[in-house]
Amino acid sequence: MESVVIFTGAGISAESGLDTFRDLGGLWGKYKIEDVATQEAFEKNPKIVLDFYNNRRRKLLSALPNDAHIALNKLQKKYNLVVITQNIDDLHERSGTKNVIHLHGKLTESRSTLDNVVYKINGAELNVDDNCEKGYQLRPNVVWFGEEVPNMDFAIEKVKAADIFIIIGTSLKVFPAASLIRYAKNSKRIILIDPNVTSYEGIEVITDRATQAVPKLVDELLKRSYSIT
Q: pLDDT (tens digit, 9 = 90+) per residue, 85-113?
């Protein structure tokens, strides 16, 4: 069974109503990174940081997977499907994707400031004095600016083994995640789906929204044979 690796960014979740970071009107136009997305900010004023993520979590709880999320899962019938995402939402999992690698963490999880043990967040709130079992403050289980991306090496290995590599809704400007495309040299096809990109050297570009382009591409891949015999 051949491998299809999907690499998703904020563009796919935007069609479910979730805010992007870098687009016009995105979160980084409303908030300063240094105030809500760094370890220093959390140490200085944890309530501001926790409130920022609590607001995002509330929006996530009311959001639903869209047609692009759902269509991708059809590939599991024929391919070894791996989804690598920069997104911290859980829409891929809620749509039925079985194999998801989160590069930047998960909004629905917290982790201990003592030992990084991960805990599920029940509901929307994570507040000051919400502590781990050992009495230490919990923080969002997301990768802040200046922190390492713990799943990066794992993701690189998956991309290296991809027969088809599909990029959906990411600007390819956030590193190190954006460097994943460099490791897709063995892929038979590399496809970028993004309405804001007209061309990208060496790869196929589909200039359409994810909810329109992904179902069509999935249908094509299911009809065509890429099996190795």
A: 999 999 999 999 999 999 999 999 999 99
Q: What is the DSSP letter of 28?
A: G
Nearest to 211 by CA among 36, 17, 12: 12
- 96 and 208 both lie in a single domain: yes
Helix (H, G, I), strand (E, B) or coil at 226: coil
- Could you count the other beta carbons within 10 Å of the beta carbon of residue 212? 15
Which residues are bridge partners to 166 per DSSP?
6, 191
Q: Contacts from 207-211 at CB under 8 Å and sequence distance 24+? A: 209/15, 210/11, 210/12, 210/15, 210/66, 210/68, 210/168, 210/169, 211/15, 211/66, 211/67, 211/68
pTM of the predicted model over 0.90 = yes
Shared domain check, 114 and 205: no
C-alpha closest to that of 167 among 155, 154, 149, 151: 155
CATH number at residue 36: 3.30.1600.10
- Catalytic center residues: 104
pLDDT tens-digit series, residues 42-89? 999 999 999 999 999 999 999 999 999 999 999 999 999 999 999 999
